[in-house]
């Protein structure tokens, strides 16, 4: 499923594809498409089955070619989707913005959250 958001300073496209029981996310923007990082979020088995874990334990593996805010969105997306769905998630991509302000970064995270919620409305059974 492709989700698209247009902001004043950029746009975001999130393409979420089921791969068996796992998910692949391609996260891009219209400004300058690039692969800033690849992040894999997988669930760790519970050490003690009797423990009630409200927060899922995730193993995060990351490959990043740049150290800038745009490369961090894949880690956030993979971590959030894995926690919400219980599935392993691979996120590839990045969102480039030229000299983003703190408000720009905040708006990007806000829109990514909304896109993830929109996706879960259609694909997660209660």
Question: How would you describe this protein?
Answer:
The protein is of the alpha+beta class and 126 residues long. The chain has one domain. Helices cover 31% and strands 33% of the residues. It is built from two helices and six strands; from the N terminus they run βββββαβα. The chain has helices spanning 69-85, 102-123, and strands at 2-6, 11-19, 22-29, 37-43, 58-64, 89-93. It has a six-stranded mixed sheet with strand order 1-2-3-6-4-5, with helices on one face. Strand 2 (11-19) and strand 3 (22-29) form a beta hairpin. Helix 1 runs parallel beside helix 2 (102-123). The longest helix has 22 residues, at 102-123. The two termini are 20 Å apart.
Topology:
Layout: E1 2-6, E2 11-19, E3 22-29, E4 37-43, E5 58-64, H1 69-85, E6 89-93, H2 102-123
Parallel strand pairs: 3-6
Antiparallel strand pairs: 1-2, 2-3, 4-5, 4-6
Helix pairs in contact: 1-2
